[in-house]
Design a protein that fits this description.
- It is a single chain.
- The protein is mainly β.
- It is 9% helix and 31% strand.
- The strands form two sheets. A four-stranded antiparallel beta sheet has the order 1-2-7-6, with no helix packed on it.
- Strand 3 and strand 4 form a beta hairpin.
Length: 147
């Protein structure tokens, strides 16, 4: 059993056992205290020869609650997953995070912000940013001269 620091009046959350921290987070969410732990959806970023693809896991986020903006070289994904609990439901456990989120990514000038596309399917938001023609790799044919 690990040795824990004793703080009689203000225990440090990092010193609490994991189970107690999970319980505290669940109670905070149940009471509506989402500010204590903001929600940040995970994002994968892939690059192909022609584009950059960002995939964000945002299940149960209404498509109308998603905002994608590109400004000053920064791509920002914003949205909100709303907590809905019908009157007939009694929550036994709430582990998922709710509320607003925001993720920002700096993009180099080699990407074409005017042609950004977004698709939302099965809880995954896919944002595709094409490369500018000048940034795409190209093959140069070498000619042989007969001297």
């Amino acid at each position: 059993m690990p040795v824990l620091k004793y703080h009689p009046f203000a225990p440090d959350l990092e010193d609490l056992p994991t189970g107690l921290r999970v319980f505290q987070d669940s109670v905070a969410r149940l009471l509506g205290d989402t500010a204590s732990r903001p929600w940040t959806p995970p994002v994968d970023i892939f690059e192909t020869e022609n584009e950059l693809i960002l995939k964000a896991d945002v299940p149960d986020v209404d498509q109308n609650n998603i905002d994608i903006r590109f400004e000053n070289g920064t791509l920002t994904l914003k949205g909100e997953r709303k907590f809905t609990n019908g009157e007939q439901l009694s929550a036994h456990r709430i582990e998922r995070s709710y509320g607003a989120f925001s993720r920002s990514f700096a993009l180099p000038e080699s990407f074409d912000a005017d042609r950004i596309r977004a698709e939302y399917r099965n809880g995954v938001l896919s944002v595709t940013v094409p490369k500018k023609e000048i940034a795409k790799p190209r093959s140069i044919k070498v000619e042989v001269s007969n001297n």
